[in-house]
């Protein structure tokens, strides 16, 4: 069980809702993933225009914890405004803070992320900031009261997987709130590695929505995250420089 703020989640997979070939495919992939949390960009939702297309329309939104995100924001002010809009529309009091500092890499702006997180926490939101894999920044976000830390594995939508396992593992080791690896996951292997490192969960979108078969990939991600978590809990063996026989001969008289 994963707990973020007051939400208890059965699944450790948090899924994005954008970029699917169509809404039927999106629904099938979401169903098979068994996720509890769906994230979506508030700016793309037409939340106050029910007649406009809404990319959650095929999903039974009541079955999920909705995690609106502030994608498109570059400043704390924009992120805060977007979060308030999501709350005012009655969608949810959880928010994924995304304040982008670089158009090419979509890497987060640390200063604006901190500012937005601080303000939204004061306003009573459950705040999950998307951050770089920087240990000190992660710690500062936690000190502010962030309910989870979401370090990127690699740039959003790049599918490059985890670029710096060392940095991620430092964040995981020191955090006292859930660490959700967010962005850049390319394959089930990447998701399993994140979980084996001890992450509390994985948030991903493109790896599923842009896969040749999004439904199959959603299922693969579900199993990879479960397998990674089990492996982490089971405790892997230590790496050794030289071989140790799997069937030791000591004590056996031939
Ligand atoms: C949907 C969402 O929140 C993305 O911004 C998120 O960071 C996922 O990134 P990937 O598409 O790389 O999985």
From TrEMBL:
Pathway: Cofactor biosynthesis; thiamine diphosphate biosynthesis
InterPro entries, sorted: Aldolase_TIM (IPR013785), Thiazole_synthase_ThiG (IPR033983), ThiG (IPR008867)
Listed SUPFAM superfamilies: ThiG-like
Cell compartments where the protein resides: Cytoplasm
The keyword Transferase is annotated on this UniProt entry: yes
Reactions listed under catalytic activity: [ThiS sulfur-carrier protein]-C-terminal-Gly-aminoethanethioate + 2-iminoacetate + 1-deoxy-D-xylulose 5-phosphate = [ThiS sulfur-carrier protein]-C-terminal Gly-Gly + 2-[(2R,5Z)-2-carboxy-4-methylthiazol-5(2H)-ylidene]ethyl phosphate + 2 H2O + H(+)
CDD domains, per database record: ThiG
E.C. number(s) listed in UniProt: 2.8.1.10
Keywords (A to Z) from UniProt: Cytoplasm, Schiff base, Thiamine biosynthesis, Transferase
Positions annotated to bind 1-deoxy-D-xylulose 5-phosphate: 157, 183-184, 205-206
Residues at the catalytic site: 96 (schiff-base intermediate with dxp)
Entry similarity comment: Belongs to the ThiG family.
Described function: Catalyzes the rearrangement of 1-deoxy-D-xylulose 5-phosphate (DXP) to produce the thiazole phosphate moiety of thiamine. Sulfur is provided by the thiocarboxylate moiety of the carrier protein ThiS. In vitro, sulfur can be provided by H(2)S.
Protein's name in the database: Thiazole synthase
């Amino acid at each position: 069980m994963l707990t973020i703020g007051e939400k208890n989640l059965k699944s450790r997979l948090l899924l994005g809702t954008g970029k699917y070939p169509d809404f039927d495919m999106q629904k099938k992939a979401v169903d098979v993933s068994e996720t509890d949390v769906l994230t979506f960009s508030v700016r793309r939702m037409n939340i106050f225009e029910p007649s406009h297309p809404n990319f959650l329309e095929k999903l039974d939104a009541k079955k999920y914890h909705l995690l609106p995100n502030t994608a498109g924001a570059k400043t704390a002010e924009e992120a805060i405004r977007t979060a308030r809009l999501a709350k005012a529309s009655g969608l949810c009091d959880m928010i994924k803070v995304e304040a982008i500092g670089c158009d090419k890499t979509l890497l987060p702006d640390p200063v604006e992320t901190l500012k937005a997180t601080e303000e939204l926490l004061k306003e009573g939101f459950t705040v999950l900031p998307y951050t770089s894999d920087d240990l000190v920044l992660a710690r500062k976000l936690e000190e502010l009261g962030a309910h989870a830390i979401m370090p990127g594995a690699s740039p959003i939508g790049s599918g490059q997987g985890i670029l710096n396992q060392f940095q991620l593992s430092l964040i995981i080791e020191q955090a006292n709130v859930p660490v959700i690896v967010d962005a850049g996951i390319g394959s089930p292997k990447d998701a399993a590695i994140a979980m084996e490192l001890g992450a509390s969960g994985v948030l991903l979108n493109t790896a599923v929505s842009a896969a040749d078969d999004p439904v199959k990939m959603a299922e693969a991600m579900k199993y990879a995250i479960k397998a990674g978590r089990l492996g982490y809990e089971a405790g892997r063996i230590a790496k050794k420089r030289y071989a140790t026989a799997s069937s030791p001969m000591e004590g056996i008289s031939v």
